[in-house]
């Protein structure tokens, strides 16, 4: 029997790269959509460039999606591409809606015309819950996005549900409502990675090549790190555990929605404390708060109830919070040595 074929948009991102490794291990042929500005640097999949087929394109260009689908004819499509920072989405609302929202619809529509039997995974997010009254949140919790990113994701989520229930030509589109998941491949504009990279730069007494934060300043200046709201509460898991859930969802007979989460909540301050303790430093000597890093409208507390995923998929988070922090700090100690 021929190998299954998976097409991944956002293949060079955190999740795309772990999913690629996971699917290659399972014997899949994998292809991905990459933006032209990544011709020389494929980010998190540089080490896999010989093993995957790359199509240059953009979610804002339906033609580029169509050409890739015509040529590759995937059995499974994972739509992971997005402008994925909730904070940054406030300063680039239109692009966020066009890529993260309308871009997903382009994928659904082109797939319907070209590979109607393909199973599609849509990367939905816990950010769609906004500031929910119901804790923990599950698949039935009301959606009330509190930032442009989440609004764009809700649009894509609703369009996926509509396509799924279309009586004339139903599409298999499953939405994974994933809670935050992190790793050493997380973008440096996300708070967890900013913390672990800063810890590494401080511990290694690094003076040059310090990464920049969202407002273009080095993330560490004079031994200090600027963060937003230390009381923000999130349910943080480990990305490799979460990409396995994506694949499990597409092995089902029926498309559906699934919450994927650890069910454990921690504050940003707890993440900070844990990260500094890994290298034996006192976080209070290094952390400052700065309103630039606080979104205009707050989200959370976000805490997921993944009981449905456990029951139907047999999925559960394997990596604990402390292990996640330790993995990220150690990877950054090596990277920013
Ligand atoms: P990520 O690291 O930010 O990756 C996003 C990917 O999308 C990148 O490869 C990026 O390519 C690509 N992309 C951006 N704009 C594009 C466009 N116009 N056309 C084509 N590709 C484009 O995100 P992630 O953490 O892997 O997350 C994967 C997906 O899950 C995203 O949709 C995210 O919103 C969603 N999600 C993530 C989490 C989480 O905690 N990580 C939670 C829930 C949902 P470039 O490198 O060229 O920018």
Summarize the helices and strands and which ones pair or pack.
Blueprint (H helix, E strand, L loop, with lengths): L4 E5 L4 H12 L3 E6 L18 E4 L5 H11 L3 E4 L6 H4 L3 H22 L4 E7 L22 H18 L7 E6 L2 E2 L8 H13 L16 E2 L2 E4 L5 E2 L2 E2 H12 L6 E4 L5 E2 H11 L8 E3 L17 H7 L7 H15 L2
Parallel strand pairs: 1-2, 1-4, 2-3, 4-5, 5-6, 6-12, 7-11, 9-14
Antiparallel strand pairs: 8-9, 10-13
Bound molecules: NADP nicotinamide-adenine-dinucleotide phosphate (NAP).
The site of NADP nicotinamide-adenine-dinucleotide phosphate has 26 residues, from helix 1 and strand 5.
Structural description of this entry:
The chain is an alpha/beta fold. The protein has 2 domains: 5-182 and 236-260, 3-Layer(aba) Sandwich (Rossmann fold); 191-233 and 265-302 and 319-335, UDP-galactose 4-epimerase, domain 1 (Alpha-Beta Complex). Helices cover 37% and strands 16% of the residues. It contains 10 helices and 14 strands. Strands 3-2-1-4-5-6-12 form a 7-stranded parallel sheet, with helices on both faces. Helix 5 (148-165) links the parallel strand 5 (119-125) and strand 6 (173-178). Helix 4 (93-114) packs parallel to helix 5 (148-165) and helix 6 (191-203) packs parallel to helix 8 (268-278). The radius of gyration is 20 Å and the shape is globular. The N and C termini lie far apart (47 Å). The model has no long low-confidence stretch (mean pLDDT 96). It binds NADP nicotinamide-adenine-dinucleotide phosphate. NADP nicotinamide-adenine-dinucleotide phosphate binds at residues 9-10, 12-16, 33, 35, 38, 43, 58-60, 80-84, 99, 123, 125, 178, 180-181, 187.
